[in-house]
Design a protein that fits this description.
Shape of chain B: elongated
Radius of gyration of chain A: 23 Å
Distance between the termini of chain A: 11 Å
Strand content of chain A: under 5%
Structural class of chain B: mainly alpha
Number of domains of chain B: 1
Structural class of chain A: mainly alpha
Largest sheet of chain B: none
Distance between the termini of chain B: 50 Å
Number of helices of chain A: 11
Strand content of chain B: under 5%
Number of domains of chain A: 2
Helix content of chain B: over 70%
Helix content of chain A: over 70%
Oligomer: heterodimer
Chain lengths: ~220, ~70
Amino acid sequence: MVPADPAAEGILPPPELDPDSEQRIQMLSGPGPQREEGLARLHDLLLRIARRELQRRGGRLQITGPELDDLAYQAAADALLAIVGKLGQFRGESRFTTWAYKFVVFEVSAKIGRHFWNKPAVRMDTEDWERLPGRFGLDPARETERRDLAAAVHRAVDEHLTPRQRQVFVAIVLNGVPMDALVAELGSTRNAIYKAMFDARRKLRAALAANGYLDDETSRHS
Amino acid sequence: MNGWPVLERFLRTDPRDVGCAEAMDLLHVYAELVAAGAPAAQRYPGIAAHLAACGPCGEDFDGLLTAVRDPVQ
């Protein structure tokens, strides 16, 4: 993985703030009553965004009613705290509200990740390799090839991945643990888990290509 | 082709992928560019590559874009 192009990031000077952003920053940086009003307005906005974001994802999550509302309040409150703490880092690259929405969307993801373990449908300490063919849609009609490839993936996992990469692979691929739930369970970050899986994918592809299970050409592009 | 498209897709990695931290840092900028119809993926190919590969960051981007386009004011 490579960093975003810092040149592209630094080409333009910080733009002038739009009136709404300027007003919100002034209120949040202002004296007591003004700041309180700014915080209340922002919290109200964050709460509405959090509710809708949870509803948008809700069908898949089966989170509704008071539980959804509770998560929305938690996400809005934590996002507000984060925004206030990082107010000095707002660089005016976007509208203030867009920057603020980002915090509440991230908080919604984190809350959903932790919520997963309230009623976990899977466990972290199991390794059912029989699930592997199904996870990758390996055609049951091609039973011999299917079994052979699944065994090759299992072997590559055992031989080429570090213990951490293996743990992440088993949790996400075999056990179907959502990434943000795994982040919460391991006390890690999304970036660290993604990096572990990214490196695992590269290693597995190289191992499978070396053994003739995948095309070398696609391996070169990876 | 080897006949295992799901596995192929899963194992395919893009060297331009900037990872979650970089993508999350600039997601508000990227979302406004997309909302404005600007060529966001051309300006930030590493973020575009990441959002295409990372389900959770892609989900966050969809949520942020929804909020930018319709902020429920």
